[in-house]
Amino acid sequence: MSQTAAGLLVPGTELSGIAPGSAVGTARSVDVDVTAPAAGACPETWTVGARLTPVSGEAFGADANLQAVASGTWVATGAQVLLPEAGTYVLSADFYSHINATTPWAVAINARLFNVTAGAPATGTTRRIQFGNINDPGGGTVMALQNAGSLNTFLTVTGPTTIRVEGQRQHVGFTDSTQAVLGGPRLGFAKVSD
Which of 51, 47, 163, 66 is nearest to 109 (CA)? Predict the structure, then answer.
């Protein structure tokens, strides 16, 4: 405080930046830093800073045996994360696929993200990871194919939400596979917006 001819001056707060509304609240992923004045001082100007502190994390799961279930059945991999608060997140998943079969064969492996909280697939996240269409006229040859795959997307949620990676085998023609795996799954997330 300071005494002037016009009266007593006291520190005030001037807000600028994002207008008050839904973007302002305790759920924001921003830390505010205030530089404290010297003991007993009451400066006219205070130094205030803000920095993003986005939540992030990742999880690893076990290989998913897709051969043990009927063609077209989705199987959870165990790679599952909890998005802890409302906001927009970038999610990244990676894994490999493996198909083993006797020719001729035609089998595909798909992957997707599943919203466990909502009990539904995350929209637009289904990806074809591998497709093998081996039409060997002689037949009887055992062939194995492996492929590395990834899946990246933005996802907006309204509250804490659990997301997991799932895999699926599709027998689409000729002989079915004898082994189909979505292996080494990893799922990571980082919040990018409130």
Answer: 66
Whose structure tokens read 């001082």?
41
Rounded to two decimals, what is the model's pTM?
0.76
Burial class (CB in 10 A: 0-12, 13-18, 19+), 93: buried
53 in Cβ contact with 37 (< 8 Å):
no
Q: What is the DSSP letter of 37?
A: P
pLDDT, one tens digit per residue, over 157-167 is: 999 999 999 99
CA pseudo-torsion sign 25, 29, 35, 36: positive
CA atoms within 13 A on the CB side of 76: 13
The predicted-structure confidence for 106-146, as pLDDT tens digits, reads as follows: 999 999 999 999 999 999 999 999 999 888 877 888 899 99
Q: In the numeric block, which tokens belong to residue 15? A: 């807000």
